[in-house]
Amino acid sequence: MTTLQRKPVNPIAHLTEEDIEAIGRELDALRDEIVASRGERDAKYIRKVISTQRRLELASRALLLVSIFPPAWLLGTAGLSVAKILENMEIGHNVMHGQWDWMRDPKIHSTTWEWDNASPSEQWKHSHNELHHTYTNVIGKDNDLGYGIMRVDEQQRWSPIHLGQPLWNFVNACFFEYGIAAYDLELGKNLKTRKRRQSPQFKERLKQVRRKIGKQLLKDYGVHPALSALTGSWLTTIAANATANLVRNLWTHSVIMCGHFPEGVETFERTSIEGETRGEWYLRQMLGSANIDGNRAMHIMTGNLSYQIEHHLFPDLPSNRYQEIAPQIRDLFQRYGLSYTSGSLPRQVGSAWYKVFRLSLPNRGEAKALAEGPRPVSGRKVKATRWQRPATQPATEPATGPVATVTTEPVAAAS
Amino acid sequence: MAVTQTLRSGAWRVVELLTTPVVPADYLDVVAPLRNAGVLRARIEAVRPETRDAVTLVLRPGRGFRPHEPGQYVRIGVDVDGVRLWRAYSVTSAPGRLSVTVNAVRDGAVSSYLVRQARRGMLVNLDQPAGDFTLPATRPGKILFVTAGSGITPVMGILRSLLPELDDVVLVHSAREREAVVFGDELRALAAAGRIRLVERHTGTDGRIGPAELAALVPDLAERPTWACGPNEMLDDLGAHFAAAGIAQNLHVERFRPKVIATGDGGKVTFGRTGTVVDAGGSTPLLEAGEAAGVLMPSGCRMGICFSCVLPMTEGAVRDLRDGSITTAVEGDNVLVQTCVSAAAGNCHLDH
């Protein structure tokens, strides 16, 4: 990972291999601390969020049945927008990450959850949890970097089509849920050749998405307006649902842009992750993410992705804990001389958009010289050991010899 | 009739379309958790102390609960420290009502929680009644119950429901001391009224009843179909005695199964659906062990963050390779484990 990328200043040049492994150990210890203290308080939190979201959605949809009256429309639309945002961000995204699997509640579990979005959860989990979170900000491996339609790093080759990327980005923001669905389908790759287009797996996934989108559309633009027709509110209900979906799309798109696009976020060469250790993986997450400053309501509305750095370090730990560990993470950055990228929502959104505009044009000056310089060559070609903690850490060593545990519950089971 | 039914299912279909991608019951749960027939729950109506360490929970089951047969048990799921844990408890009430009696055992997470924390109004998760510790439809003329400790619970359920149909009942019950006898007053009252013959033994002072002593206490033992519930040693001794006397078919037992889970290093991993059995080492992720044996395993990041590889473990123990923590499952459980960062810590059974 010393071959971070071609930037004038390498932000990790001052770190030794031991430093990086020490960072890894510290983060593993913090992780263990959170895992050991997960409990009733956390369970209460997520159940409360889910119940609030469902009540809000029910109330808003009920209000929209009489949306012919402007105050009902306004209130209902606002409520539904917030409900949809909560459902996607603090609930859906985090549940599907497995953050709440430890509760063993089949109703709040990554394997059973389906979200209010065009993309079926099965496909989203693959492209997001598996690809994006493992290969965060690795050019050519992490498709979140520009979603395959934009140039968001100097290292990506420029072509005239990129001149239009500010426009694509805006259109993508408005229809973000469909963008995600297309992205999870890897349309760019899968539509390219006839063989891929015809492959039964792709066809099956396409069918899944079509079915999901059909149901979503029928709910928001068919059934709900039909019920509102009794009060002559069907058109206003359609408008309300369209507005709520648009608001949700714009909001989630902004939050997600803030996570990895603002200035200060690093990208990585594909070769730099060969043989990557656990410590190096952690370090890549630290450098490849950016936070958003704000109040509690804002954090909840972003699904605590405003703590993007903390989320990327521990994607499967409960989201309500990110805020609590943020000071410790900030301190870790400081001690190792790393920069913790964070800023207000307007600043980060602005910064991300600036990058989209800047990179719609070809590289100039210093960036050009660097990007076109020699590609770093990696000497190592070994299997990555990201799951493995350093062997020197005593806590990970398996207990010696077999230990028998007896569960002493009186279980009157069938004989 | 058919018309209303069609209308009703049509209306339900509309509601389903409106609540997609979740089901209507998920919204119903927010306001009326007991109305959801898809997820069985019960509300605790009353908590009655029985002894220092035992309480009876009077439960009101939600929609969809099927009545039990006397002697059966229900599985109850409670969230202890936020984690849902399931345990089986014998029903102690007559059908039509639902009570269970919980005895706090040392280190018993669920029983201690229920005895100390259960309050009126709390919700618990529930399973349908199950178990075959029941009496035949033609009730035996003479009957013997042998119980010890909380082994009295299924028998109490039987006595409270079926005693009017039984003519000649002998109950031999053991407990540590008089104060520890669950339902002591009720049993003694039945004995005083001549409805049952009760042999009450306090093992703290008088020791345990062996099979030979039992034969002396109940001279017509051979003529009595017997239902026994208690610790494993007691049931094993009884089994041997009945077998030696050639009347093994007379004995029906319900085991308080203290499950021994060897949390060692590695073990036999059984993939239930494919039928593959692998000897997995203590530091090999289950995912790799399965793949090496040719099992088609779901997988993803292979570092424990994406949860694409989780499989249900129905029995056994695994160790998390990241922090060494142990997760166990006993029969009836369905614990989802991340196969890419979990290694066998004893024999395990995966439903895959």
TrEMBL record, chain A:
Gene Ontology, cellular component aspect: membrane
Domain of life of the source: Bacteria
Keywords assigned by UniProt, alphabetized: Coiled coil
Coiled-coil regions listed in the entry: 13-40
Fatty acid desaturase domain span: 72-342
Coiled coil among keywords: yes
Protein name in the entry: Fatty acid desaturase
Keyword Coiled coil: yes
GO terms under biological process: lipid biosynthetic process
Region: Disordered, residue numbers: 367-415
Compositionally biased intervals (Low complexity): 394-415
GO molecular function, one term: oxidoreductase activity, acting on paired donors, with oxidation of a pair of donors resulting in the reduction of molecular oxygen to two molecules of water
One Pfam family cited in the UniProt record for this chain: FA_desaturase
Organism classification: Bacteria, Bacillati, Actinomycetota, Actinomycetes, Micromonosporales
From TrEMBL, chain B:
Cofactors demanded by this protein: FAD
Keyword DNA damage: no
Database matches in CDD domains: fer2, FNR_iron_sulfur_binding_2
UniProt keyword Cytoplasm, yes or no: no
Assigned keywords, A-Z: 2Fe-2S, FAD, Flavoprotein, Iron, Iron-sulfur, Metal-binding, Oxidoreductase
GO MF, any single term: 2 iron, 2 sulfur cluster binding
Pfam families, per database record: FAD_binding_6, Fer2, NAD_binding_1
UniProt xrefs under Gene3D superfamilies: 3.10.20.30, Nucleotide-binding domain of ferredoxin-NADP reductase (FNR) module, Translation factors
Every FAD-binding FR-type domain range: 37-136
The protein, known as: Stearoyl-CoA 9-desaturase
Organism of provenance: Actinoplanes nipponensis
Lineage: Bacteria, Bacillati, Actinomycetota, Actinomycetes, Micromonosporales
